[in-house]
Amino acid sequence: MAGHGTDEHPHGADRLCEAGDRVYSRAVRRGRVPRRDAEPVPCLMDLALLHPDPDDMDWLVPTPPQEVMTRLLRGMYDEFSASQRRVGSAVAAFEWYAGLGHQVSPAPSATEGPAIRVLDGLARIQTAMDEATQACTTEVLTVQPGGIRREAELSEGLHRATALRGRGVRMRDLYTHVARHGQGLLTYLELMGDAVEARTLDEVIERLILFDRTVAFIPANAERTMALELRHPALVEYLGTVFERLWRLAIPLTAPLPDTGIEGISHREQSIAALLAEGHQDAVIAERLGISVRTCRAHIARLSETLGAASRTQLGVRIAQAGLDGPPRSSRTVPARGSRTAR
Question: How far apart are CA 256 and CA 2, in angstroms?
Answer without folding.
Answer: 88
